[in-house]
């Protein structure tokens, strides 16, 4: 009886100690608000809280704002894990704001595609989902489906084509892919600008935001738009016949990364959060909810979901990541040239 009581007391002591630790721990991350944050909570945050007993403080901050906060907090960081979709982890790691990650500390790292874990040792956190940029199209009006980026120049689409301004991140990636399909690269965007000028002369339209794309498809007979895979799903949920096609020349990718912040006391918890983010279960959940492409090779998607994303070895083989650092360094000059082109 004494042994049983002693064991019970010890177990209770450990439980109370763990609970007290969890209650006293402040664990802060950022998320992107709206439907994304809803899915983030369902797929990762809530399961993490249930497993660890830690309450997660979620700061709604998009990538640029979150990075500005991280820089401002350099001497006293407040985030434990920080998420980016614009490549800010590259700069953050170089500036020592993010902690290097040993792949061996993540149980799910071995199952990630190589591109998703390439620079963990530098401090660039893994990509836990991908926004793939391809062609959203009206499945009733466009048959067969587009198969390459040069299809955007098809005269049949001229008055039914919607382009997105490059002030929009997805618009920028779509433009750079169009530029590449016309023989340009990050050192020369003129072929892309020339193509845009021709498309506008033929009747194409430029919008700035995703709701405007939906409006054009719903009300103004839009048939095709280069944009992110998840938005085809958004249009379909709104009752609009829409599909997503990857171009044979390649699929620009916006990497959504989860990063461990340097100088925080909760490194073990941060690594656990990152590991849960790259698990197949979390990525299946994100793909189902928002149609983001998984980076874990073990993630299993239904045929319906897989049709909307870059999925499997073949699907991700064509992903292209335009260097975020080069984009940022040239953004102002490119926007100026873009604005001159569309003004004409």
From TrEMBL:
GO terms for molecular function: thiamine binding; thiamine pyrophosphate binding. The keyword Signal applies. InterPro entries: SBP (IPR006059). Keywords: Periplasm, Signal. It comes from the Bacteria. One of its GO terms (cellular component) is outer membrane-bounded periplasmic space. Residues 1-22 form the signal peptide. One of its GO terms (biological process) is thiamine transport. Pfam families: SBP_bac_8. This is Extracellular solute-binding protein. Gene3D superfamilies: Periplasmic binding protein-like II (3.40.190.10).
